[in-house]
Design brief:
Blueprint (H helix, E strand, L loop, with lengths): L3 H21 L1 H5 L2 H20 L3 H25 L4 H14 L2 H4 L7 H14 L15 H14 L7 H21 L2 H21 L4 H25 L9 H13 L1
Helix pairs in contact: 1-4, 3-4, 8-10, 9-10, 11-12
Length: about 260
């Protein structure tokens, strides 16, 4: 591992390269906060994929891509006189110190849960009107639901036992089934949302990340489906030409693999 000085030198090197790119590269010169935004989101998802795949070499590469974006934003901020990388770093340092009084102050905590509760209380003292203000509107709905529930838990609004949450899942499933039978599409959608929300809540109680779990299933399905396609190709067929029974044979093979 690198020493602290080597780490600092590497970060300084990145800042120097960013200065060069911003001054000399036609593409880098044109970029704005707005033009980089969608690229940053893409890089974040690529990092997420690497983490899910437990590909540490790829994680290192994707972290570098994200770090470049952070430095890029700070460089643009310095050009407008609004902020630079030191302001960004000092800002997060100050926030971390303030929100960890059990480390940098005299507050005593017994466990992780108390740390989370103190964190949310301190955020309210900073002027936030609701603990839910920290949940970005642009998050995918599945992730947003998880974060909303986590935030509510931080101020004590939560179920006491996982069995209660499971009962709620069963209740929402029953209500969803009733609306499907009734055939009102608007109510069906509303109840389906309630089912998903309750399942995400239950996942939290059993320490399962719903986003990771669903993406894991997505990857599994893709892998099995592409196997099915390849086997059909070996037979000189397309999937449209095969019966469900024929496809099922290869699907079961893929599951065994």
């Amino acid at each position: 591992m690198n020493t602290r000085q080597q780490q600092l030198d590497a970060f300084g090197r990145l800042l120097d390269i960013m200065d060069d790119l911003r001054a000399k590269c036609p593409w880098d010169k044109k970029q704005t906060l707005q033009s980089l935004r969608h690229l940053t989101i893409e890089e974040t998802y690529e990092l997420g994929d690497a983490i899910l795949n437990n590909d540490l070499i790829e994680v290192k590469k994707e972290l570098g891509d994200l770090l470049l974006h952070l430095v890029f934003y700070a460089k643009i901020g310095s050009e407008t006189g609004d902020f630079d990388i030191a302001d960004v770093a000092n800002g997060i340092c100050d926030k971390l110190i303030y929100r960890h009084p059990h480390i940098y102050g005299d507050v005593v905590v017994e466990d992780e849960e108390q740390v989370k509760q103190n964190w949310e209380k301190l955020k309210l003292k900073e002027g936030k009107k609701s603990v839910l203000e920290g949940v970005p509107n642009g998050l995918p709905a599945l992730v947003k639901a998880s974060r909303i529930q986590d935030k509510a838990k931080g101020v004590g609004f939560d179920w006491e036992e996982s069995s209660q949450v499971w009962d709620k899942v069963q209740e929402e499933l029953s209500e969803f089934h009733d609306e499907v039978q009734a055939g009102d599409k608007d109510k069906i959608e509303a109840e389906f949302g309630d089912v998903l929300f309750s399942l995400i809540n239950y996942a939290r109680f059993i320490n399962v990340n719903p986003e990771d779990a669903l993406e894991r299933t997505n990857k599994k399905f893709i892998k099995r489906f592409t196997y099915l396609e390849s086997k059909a190709g070996e037979l000189g067929k397309s999937l449209q030409d095969m019966t469900l029974a024929e496809m099922d044979v290869f699907w079961n093979e893929a599951k065994k693999l």
